[in-house]
Amino acid sequence: MKNFFRAGLRVFLFSLFFLSFSCLAPILASPTVAFSAPSKDAPALYTTLPWMTNMARFIVGSTMKIQPMSSWNDLGVLKIAKRLPKDAVIIALDPKDAEKYGLAPDRENINFLYENLPVSEARRNTLQFDPSALPFLSQRLLVVLSRLQPNNYSFYQRRLAEFQSRLESTLEVGRIQIHGIKLLDLTEAASPWLKAASAEVVRPPADLWDAWSNGDRLQELALAVGEAQRRGWWIVIDAWTPYRIRAHAIGARNGVFIKPPQNEEDFFTYLHDIYLQMWNTVGRR
User: Fold this and answer.
1) Which residues touch 272 (CB under 8 Å, ≥6 apart)?
2) pLDDT digits (tens, 9 = 90+) for 149-164
3) CATH number, domain containing residue 67
């Protein structure tokens, strides 16, 4: 009887998810927001951070060529391109970001989303996963793009509205997919995206996280992972999770690994797939 009830519950939840997803599917897969290749004579624009590349591609559509200056490997290590055309038009997050790429802040044709963004290096990686920050970042990107291509301002405005609509709908689907499941959050960067969709996220306090990252109190980490497995929680790590923490969690039952986005990957498909991974984990139980 218990197994029958559990099976019936799964069918009900799947049906609920399917109906909700069907309502949102026109927004998530609308042809008006699909990426199309730029024309051969479209101007080129270089972007520093990989997530900025994917965000810019969404907003400009086929009006410009967006060239990435960097990419992440599977462990979240940033690989930076060393060569750029001398006359390259560049967008960087701020002067500190530019310096990381070997770019002088007073270089000709460099544009900044912010004159000074007062956040730590670790926090900068979380921006791509933070639904409270993404609307502001996309608006700043619109300002820069419109200054570079003023004739396309109205088009970029519409794309910005679609960007924000897609962000909200992707979150709504995620809330349905991971509703009611507790997460042990051992991510370095993706934590805001998990918290935005679930109120049942358990994260170590900052002092304990710092100790684990430095290789201290690892017995407590092992106990935490073991207890989470016993309770049937998801154990989530990402590509930026410190090595010592990742080593204890990588083979855990109900473990989920969030890979870094690739330069050619659709921005919202990537974010949606984070929740989809967890939905699939439930389905394998």
Assistant:
1) 28, 170, 173, 174
2) 999 999 999 999 999 9
3) 3.40.50.1980
